[in-house]
Design a protein that fits this description.
By secondary structure, this protein is an alpha+beta fold. It contains four helices and five strands; from the N terminus they run αβββββααα. The chain has one domain. The chain starts with a helix and ends in a 6-residue tail after the last helix. The C terminus is likely disordered.
Length: about 110
């Protein structure tokens, strides 16, 4: 069993606050280390959001795909519990990390 699979085993039921048209709403979510998998407030599919800011990181048709993305995102070495400014600075200042994040949305990362 990989370290990541054991992390996914630690997903906990919770909620995430989302900002929608000048109002905040709470949605049920599976939460782990600063990321949450949830159904969007409006529409279908599943979303992975940053719990601190409530901003969407990625969207998928299936919950399984959202969980797989969360698994890959946690392996990138990004501190998802940090505020959005810190994450943006860290990701945008590291071209390889940015590429890995983009690749993780599209599928397994093959970059070194």
């Amino acid at each position: 069993m990989t370290a990541t699979k054991s992390k996914l085993g630690k997903l906990r039921r919770g909620a995430i606050e989302l900002e929608l048209s000048n109002r905040r709403v709470s949605v049920k979510a599976l939460v782990l280390l600063g990321l949450a998998v949830h159904k969007p407030y409006e529409g279908g599919g599943f979303t992975v959001s940053h719990t601190v800011s409530g901003l969407r990181v990625a969207s998928f048709s299936l919950q399984r795909d959202a969980k797989q993305f969360l698994e890959r995102a946690l392996d990138l070495g990004i501190d998802w519990t940090a505020d959005l400014d810190t994450i943006n600075r860290d990701v945008l200042s590291n071209e390889l990390l940015l590429k890995k994040l983009i690749d993780s949305i599209q599928g397994p990362c093959t970059s070194p």
